[in-house]
């Protein structure tokens, strides 16, 4: 497996009908690899609807700092989350955000703003199980497990935890930061 930077164009990658592809012999799942602050992360393809370039963001009032706003992606309004702020709960922004990974489950669409998309790779399913041996601060975060591919460490993102936290937000607690 090779993790090289994928050249991207202005066109989006549509993953509307993508399901995880499993190899019957080796039981592998497809995982999209992306970069945030010099760290590599992975998301299982089954949660990804599309990948798009970052366009004009419309700010929203009374949202947490990690919610950058909304964007119209081909007629669908999508809430944007800056993954670096969301995952670390810090206010540190990207050096150069450039892509949106649109996640979808049966309840909502979310756009994760990331710096760079690398590749889609196959990872054995048994390596994608939640790891009980991770430190408590990692287990309580959005990391499902950590895998090693060649000489690279990849933090596999727990997409369902992201959806769950967004659904449980109480927007009445936030000040208007849309200005």
UniProtKB/TrEMBL annotation:
Gene Ontology CC: one annotated term: cytosol
Ranges where the CheW-like domain occurs: 28-168
Protein name, entry field: CheW-like domain-containing protein
PROSITE patterns: CHEW
GO BP terms: chemotaxis; signal transduction
Transmembrane feature ranges: none
Top-level taxon in the UniProt lineage: Bacteria
SUPFAM superfamilies associated with the record: CheW-like
InterPro entries named in the record: CheW, CheW-like_dom_sf, CheW-lke_dom
